[in-house]
Design a protein that fits this description.
Distance between the termini: 102 Å
Number of strands: 0
Shape: elongated
Strand content: under 5%
Radius of gyration: 29 Å
Number of domains: 1
């Protein structure tokens, strides 16, 4: 190699191959992007699960329906959605039980409890509750609107914690994932319907939601009162 060539190679800037730069950059970037995607996915999963948990405090049934629709839409997997729904239901319903147990008769003077649970109703049903307590706890899981007074009354009447845990807990563990799964199936059908009939499907889906809300919130309580359920 001539002296001039050697000097040029030492002192002139070397221009790297652009293809090699692109390849090296991508190889270094891919693991980083994978970490970002995984971290973002985990953060979103936590957010979705928290939303489901908080929703159960407003309405357990509608929260399970919403969880199923989130699964059907691909926002969250089935088991995280079901676990979040179960966790929210346990937190909310055990809070009712312990509120009744700890506050006792004073709860009948504290808003909003005094508007929702009447002392005469609780104690008039005490004997029946002692005999049929497990049946009432199980049935209340399937009758929207009955859980608040039933679980609160269970606490006020000092129902055994372990009895409450067994009957309420087992029923909730079986009922909640089943309801979420059913909502996934129904939600998937709604989404397929929406894709096929996009022009007017949204209004029909909204109508279904309105019907569910009215049915769960108003019609069932009216039917229970009328027919003494």
């Amino acid at each position: 190699v001539s002296q001039d060539t050697l000097s040029n190679s030492l002192f002139e800037p070397q221009v790297p191959d652009s293809n090699q730069i692109s390849k090296d950059s991508l190889e270094k970037l891919v693991p980083y992007l994978n970490r970002v995607e995984k971290r973002s996915g985990n953060e979103l999963l936590v957010v979705y699960m928290l939303l489901i948990i908080l929703s159960t405090l407003l309405s357990e049934d509608l929260a399970c329906i919403a969880a199923g629709l989130m699964v059907a839409n691909g926002l969250i997997a089935f088991w995280p959605a079901a676990i979040a729904a179960v966790a929210g239901i346990f937190m909310g319903d055990f809070s009712l039980y312990f509120a009744g147990r700890l506050l006792g008769n004073s709860i009948f003077t504290i808003p909003p409890f005094k508007w929702l649970v009447k002392k005469e109703n609780v104690y008039s049903a005490e004997a029946w509750f002692e005999k049929k307590g497990p049946v009432i706890l199980v049935l209340s899981r399937f009758i929207p609107g009955s859980r608040f007074p039933v679980y609160m009354s269970a606490g006020i009447l000092k129902t055994s914690f372990w009895k409450f845990l067994i009957y309420f807990g087992l029923t909730a563990l079986l009922w909640t994932p089943t309801f979420v799964w059913f909502s996934v199936f129904a939600g998937s059908e709604l989404l397929m319907f929406y894709e096929s009939y996009e022009d007017y499907a949204l209004w029909i889906i909204l109508g279904v939601f309105v019907f569910l809300i009215v049915f769960l919130r108003y019609l069932i309580p009216i039917m229970k009162t009328k027919f003494k359920i």
